[in-house]
Amino acid sequence: MTTSETSRGTFGKASVRDADVGGRTVLLRADLNVPLADGVITDDARIRAALPTIELLRDRGAAIVLVSHLGRPKDRDPALSMAPVAARLGELLGIDAALAPAVVGAEVAREAEDLDAGQVLVLENSRYEPGETANDPALADQLAALADVYVDDAFGAAHRAHATTEGIAHRLPAYAGLLLEREVRELTAVRDDPQRPLCVALGGAKVTDKIGVLGAFLDTADQILIGGAMCFSFFKSQGIETGDSLVEEEGVALAREVLERSDGARASLRLPTDLVIAARFDADAEHRAVDGVEVPEGWMGLDVGPKTVAAYADEIEKAGTVFWNGPMGAFELEPFAAGTRGVAEAVAAAPGMTVVGGGDSAAAMADFGLANEVDWLSTGGGASLELMEGRALPGVEALMERNGDG
To answer: Which CATH superfamily includes the segment(s) 187-388?
Structure first.
C-alpha cells in the first residue's frame, strides 16, 4: 500500500492511539479469518494487518486478550480452531501467543487474569459460541469481564452486530484499532471527497449484493464499469440472449431499474462489449472470445473480452480516484482470468488514488502479485460496500466518540 500514513477521510470515533492501556488488559477484536487448507494457513495477510495495533498495545504495556471468528463452524468444529492462527501470530510477533481452551469460562478467565504486560492470549473461535452471532448479552458480559478496555480492529466484521463487535463495546471503554480507523478514513474519502473523475469498477456474481453501492455511485461517481457474472442480469433485462451464463434472476429487475436510473444520473454506466465464453465451467472447457455480448445456447460467459478490458483500462487510467470491488470473470480458472488481471493491472498502474474493496478483488490482487501496488487494499468486502453505500456499521457506531462520550 503506497499511501502515506496520513489518512485522508474523517473518523469521529475514539482511537487506540488515545487509550490509556498501560498495566491494563485489553480485549482486542481482530479479523483473523484466514483461509486454511488441511489446517495450514494459506494466506496470513489478515494476521499481518492486525500487527500494528497489537504491537502498539504491547509497546504501551498492555496485556492482550485477542478474539476473532474463523469461518462458519458448526458447533465446535476442530478444523476451525484458532490454533494455527495463534501459532502464526506468535511467529510474527516473536513470542508465545497462548491459545485459550475456549471463548469464555472459568479457565479462560484465569488465564486472562494471569497475563503480564506484553503477553497475548488468543481465545478460541468466537463462533464456537452460538451467542456470538446472536449478539447475546450474557456472552458480551462474560467477554467484558476478561478485560479493562476494548479495542475493535476487525473492519471486516464491522458490519455485523455480534457480541464481539457490538455488544461488548457497550460494556467497556471502546476504541478503534489502527486498521479499522484507517479503513474508515480511506473508504470515506473515496465516498465523500474523491479526486475527480471517480471511476468505479464493480464485478462479481450478484446484482443484489451490489445494488446498494450501485445506487449510491450512480449519484456520486463519474464512471461505473460493470463486469463479472452480474453483467448477464443487465443483458437479460435488455432482452439479450445469455445462453447458459450464470444469471441471478432476482437481479434482472434490479438491473433494469439501475439502467433506467442511469439515464439521468451523474455517472456513466458501462457494460461489457465483448466476452469470453465456454462450453462449461471448467479450465479445460472449449472456449473462445466473441465480439459482442450475445451468448449462444449451450455456452456460458465466463469473462469480459479484450476490447472491454482495454476500454475499462482507459477509463481507469484517466481517473483521479478508482474504486474496484468484484472480479470481472471466473479468474480462479486461468483461461478466464484475463479480464480480472487486465483490470487489476490497470488499477495498479493508475496514477490516481486507487482503492480495492476487499473480498475476491483483494484476493485477485494478491494472486497477480499486485497487492502492494494500490493505495489502499481493504480487508473488508461486505463492510467496505456497506460503508460506501452510506450504511452505518454496527461495530463502528458502538465505539466511543472521539471526545470520550460512549
So the answer is: Phosphoglycerate kinase, N-terminal domain (3.40.50.1260)
